[in-house]
Amino acid sequence: PFSYIVKEIYPELFIPGEAIAYGEIRNDAEGHIKMCVDSSARKSDYHKPLGLYPCHGSGGNQYWLLSREGEIRRDEACVDYAGKDVVLFPCHGSGGNQLWIYDNKTQLIRHGTSGRCMEYNRVRIRLKMSDCDPNNDAQRWIFQNFNATLAAIYRTSSSQPTPLV
């Protein structure tokens, strides 16, 4: 059966139904136009900084999935941070630069290896990484559809450190 193929032969296959969050990643800064993480996720966009554009509610370039492994992804492209810009990179399934930890209570998106948080740079209208500060509204992000029940299941069933809080 298909489940055997996925589990035994192709375990790295991403199944969208197992995502713990999906939809827009909206910045929660007060008094500003709501901005969303935006990219076409074409191969020509790989290695380029992710964009921020006014949220439009139509999915498309602003539709993202947070996998149970802590990847923020669309199709085969994952959000990646190697110390400079937040970019798209082909998903590799090894965590590292592509591991993101979302705290649904503080709304922070923390990078798993650097420990820094994703922030909306209002001056340059782009993403930047900064020391985490739950009082900084430019670091608060809302996943349009976050499934706390599914997040709790993955948190308790995983033998690895969880990307979910």
Can you put this structure into words, describing what you see?
This protein has 165 residues and is mainly β. The protein has a single domain (16-157), classed as Trefoil (Acidic Fibroblast Growth Factor, subunit A), CATH 2.80.10.50. It has helices at residues 2-9, 148-157, and strands at 21-27, 35-38, 51-54, 64-66, 72-74, 77-81, 86-90, 100-103, 108-111, 117-121, 126-130, 141-146. It is globular and about 50 Å long. Residues 158-162 have low confidence and may be disordered.
Give helix and strand order, one letter per element, not per position. HEEEEEEEEEEEEH
What does the overall shape look like?
Answer: globular
Roughly what percent helix?
10-25%
By DSSP (H or I, 4+ residues per run), the number of helices equals: 2
How can the largest sheet be summarized? 6 strands, antiparallel
What is the strand tally? Answer: 12
Alpha carbon gyration radius = 15 Å
Instruction: List unreliable stretches of 5+ residues.
Output: 158-162
Strand order in space, largest sheet: 7-6-5-4-1-12
Mean pLDDT reading:
85
Domain Ricin B lectin: 27-144
InterPro entries: Ricin_B-like_lectins, Ricin_B_lectin
Protein name: Putative polypeptide N-acetylgalactosaminyltransferase 9
GO molecular function, one term: polypeptide N-acetylgalactosaminyltransferase activity
